[in-house]
Amino acid sequence: MPTASSVLTATLFLFNVLIGCHGWTGSVLSRRQAFLASVSTGGAFLSLVTADSSPALAMDTSSVDTVQSSSRLLISTIPSMPYGAPATNSTIVDATLVENIETLASHLERLAQQRDNAISPLLTGNAWRLVYSNAPEIGSLADNLPPGFHLGKTYQPIDTAQGTFENRSPILVGNLAKIVISVVGDVQVAGPGTVNAVQVVNDRNNRVNVYFRGITFTLDEVFGIQKTWLSKTLIPNADKSRAQPANDVTYLDDKMRIIRGGDGSLFVFVLENDANVAPPTRSSTQTEAIAQKDGQTVDVGIGVAEKSQSPELQFLFQSR
């Protein structure tokens, strides 16, 4: 079990990686602050705990014959994870439970047969919280962080009127610090008949094109003091040889949203009743202006360390 000192060391290592890269602005921790942190947090931190319960039984969906019952069953089947992190196929230890979740999601999509979700007003909301995904980048963040680092509640605020979104993922370091990874971009209704990376045709008007404009790393809390201690913005290189990044909104109601990524990955969101969740923090134009002044353009990779030019993402996504 990692000690507070080892967690602090790992935190400062990450900060040093970030500080050493072009584009960081803000305050830097002094040696005295680091020493006080190790003294004041003399206990130990728990490493990430995966959801563990009695083994699940394979689910028969033949009796789940309504959209309402299917959606309720899907939400109740997804386990709560430590720190409010999304459950993933790598952090749920019971393979049958993972299979049940993904079977229920597919069953709900088939039952609902929804259309025109890309233009639905239900898409807009600040408190869309990710509760399950099998995407590799989410699994890496949830299950592959250094000891003492934990993924927290992950939100995706969307403003369809402005055409903007934000993926907001906090990395919690015990009670020492919080680092927020924010991916900002634009969304646009995809044209009919477009084909994504896994050759799925947009024949239901459920597809939203996604344009990633910036990734910001912010150290916004240290020892309980909330302010922008450090910040860095990266501009992702657009790979024009690949299919346009897009998400298919395969199910949508006023409480839940199912997304299929361009590679077929599954994302399940619930809309929380939390007025404290902020809207997208800034427009993509503002993000690009910040990056042009203080940031850099890089190949970020997709949740795989060796595919990224960013030291921050290499650190977060490396195998451990």
Automatic annotation (TrEMBL):
Residues 1-23 form the signal peptide. Residues 74-269 form the Plastid lipid-associated protein/fibrillin conserved domain. GO terms for cellular component: plastid. It is found in: Plastid. Keywords: Plastid, Signal. It comes from Seminavis robusta. This is PAP fibrillin. Pfam families: PAP_fibrillin (PF04755). It comes from the Eukaryota.
